[in-house]
């Protein structure tokens, strides 16, 4: 639950910072960023909404490497690393994608992730805890899961969805802010007042929470699809065994910014389940065991 809370707060903090910057530019310097009319406002919102999401996607590999200390394997230093490279190459060929970079990051938690802006130039990385604790067939299934994410273009789709939602959060929040500023605060000036700023901030928080629910819902769906892809590439029994092994994972979790990309994110209860980027492991196992 702590990880989900931090992930949500991070996204809301970005929107809040954006609102503050816009308010300072417009209120202090008198520069009207959105122009006049809903069309101009929508274009303005799209530039800011998609801008952050696409920049994050473009920098995703670099960010992951720095944040988790990923060591990319260029020259294998052991039989395990040679096996890892060979397995990823074989799975990538099966999925008909370009060979991704392969890396290892130091963590006791059993985890792995895939990221990158293009399906033929991705990064697949696994933790040292996963390599130590899982059998080769289970590791292969996890790699198949991550390769499926790349083949399905999940990173790009997630970024585009986040961009669309950010756009409408910014757009609708400013409309609500302007409406409240004109009616309740009776601001008849052309310039926006403090009521606009405060209302826009609150509206962005509320709308941002709803947007996070939508992103999380999509993310959970893609995990089911990636599990099925891992089962197709490495065998259903191996994929189920890998998910069962993840239930025994321990150690320091991945940073909140990387939670949506890892294969293992823990669990949540009650209302916080709406913000889970991954379904509970028991549900994922049951989905693979279902004849449908």
Number of strands: 4
Give the C-alpha Rg.
Answer: 22 Å
Which percent bin holds the helix content?
A: 55-70%
Largest sheet: 4 strands, mixed
Helix segment count? 10
Average pLDDT over all residues: 83
- Identify the overall geometry: elongated
The first-to-last residue Cα distance is: 31 Å
Beta fraction of the residues? 5-15%
User: What's the helix-strand series?
Assistant: HHHEHEEEHHHHHH
Task: Give the structural class.
Answer: mainly alpha
Strand order of the biggest β-sheet: 1-2-4-3
Low-confidence stretches: 1-8
What key attributes describe this structure?
292 residues; mainly alpha; four-stranded mixed sheet; 64% helix; elongated
Layout of secondary structure:
Layout: H1 2-28, H2 38-58, H3 60-68, E1 71-72, H4 79-95, E2 101-105, E3 112-115, E4 123-127, H5 128-133, H6 136-152, H7 154-183, H8 194-234, H9 236-246, H10 281-289
Parallel strand pairs: 2-4
Antiparallel strand pairs: 1-2, 3-4
Helix pairs in contact: 1-8, 2-3, 2-7, 4-6, 6-8, 6-9, 7-8, 8-9, 9-10
